[in-house]
Specification:
disordered N terminus; 7-stranded parallel β-sheet; 8 helices; 7 strands; alpha/beta
């Protein structure tokens, strides 16, 4: 029998790789099947050169909350736990009850960075802003009853759907932005993304704005002037991350792995191609350094950016 070995060293191993503030992660397997704790452990090993923080979208779907928390137990890994919200409130209730159960099994104060109530439920028009805000307050109250009121609670929404009632309810704003889906040419993509960040910062009344999702697909059909290919995926990654670092914007990059099980029922057939690693869960998509940041470059929208060359710049990638 394979032993579940603590992986404390995984998040602190001195392997040099381009560092991400955090990554989005779904532990489902290539065929869409549910993961076990050993598979999650293997994923963490593959991802540890890049980050020590992940976000999952549901603790109940595939019961993935438990293997993720178990694999991270006694390590330096952190996770944002998601509760899925759709048009059927039973989905949310099941996730909420699983969150409460998991809080009785694991020490959330060690691994859980935040709880995210819903992902683009307003964008999909499955909830109103008032309904989603009520769910955020409900989860905050549930955590407080467990003595976990220090854990922030938020909701993830696309930048134009983050309405004021939701902003007022969350502890920080967790926004999604994808210039690719706006049909933007790659040369203006990061400026467009930061326009959205600045707009939400103005509306947030002093609350922190975190980028919960952004990225660029490496394959698939184009969308307007947005071209899905490896060079553009790396260019967007480089320019966004370097500017986010300089402007102190926290972000969860989308995505950890290419997802062969993801839906292909969309106009551009790109859903399986957003990862920084391939769908074998072990092979990096990009060669190192994935990005290098030139501290002398000045952005056009009041912030700093880098040149368009994905290999440009002279500074070394960060090492954990």
């Amino acid at each position: 029998m394979r032993l579940l070995v603590p992986i404390l060293a995984l998040a602190t191993t001195a392997l040099c790789a381009s560092n991400f503030h955090a990554l989005n992660y779904n532990p489902k397997r290539q065929d869409g099947s549910c993961p076990n704790v050993y598979q999650v452990q293997d994923d963490l090993k593959a991802l540890q050169p890049y980050t020590s923080k992940l976000r999952i979208y549901s603790v109940k779907d595939c019961n993935q909350g438990e293997p993720v928390l178990r694999a991270m137990e006694n390590t330096a890994w952190k996770v944002e736990l998601g509760l899925w919200v759709d048009g059927n409130d039973a989905t949310y209730e099941a996730d909420k009850q699983e969150l409460i159960r998991l809080a009785g099994v694991f020490d959330f104060t060690k691994q859980v960075d935040a709880v995210v109530v819903g992902s683009e439920a307003l964008y999909r028009k499955e909830q109103t802003a008032e309904q989603l805000a009520a769910k955020v307050r409900e989860v905050k109250a549930a955590l407080a009853q467990l003595g976990l009121q220090s854990i922030p609670v938020t909701s993830s929404e696309t930048w134009p759907s983050y309405y004021q009632p939701l902003i007022d309810a969350v502890d920080f704003v967790n926004m999604h932005g994808f210039p690719f889906w706006e049909g933007v040419e790659i040369g203006g993509a990061v400026d467009k993304m930061f326009e959205h960040i600045y707009g939400l910062q103005k509306a947030a009344n002093g609350k922190k704005v975190v980028v919960g999702e952004t990225g660029w697909p490496s394959d698939g059909d184009n969308y307007g002037a947005s071209v899905a290919n490896l060079a553009n995926a790396q260019r967007y990654l480089q320019e966004f991350i370097c500017r986010a670092q300089k402007e102190n914007i926290e972000y969860y990059y989308f995505n950890s792995f290419d997802q062969s099980w993801a839906s292909t029922n969309n106009a551009s057939n790109v859903e399986g191609h957003w990862g920084i690693m391939l769908n074998d869960y072990v092979t990096p998509k990009f060669s190192e350094p994935i990005y290098t940041c030139d501290s002398g470059s000045i952005g056009s929208s009041g912030g700093n950016s880098v040149s368009g060359n994905a290999k440009a710049g002279s500074s070394s990638p960060k090492c954990n």
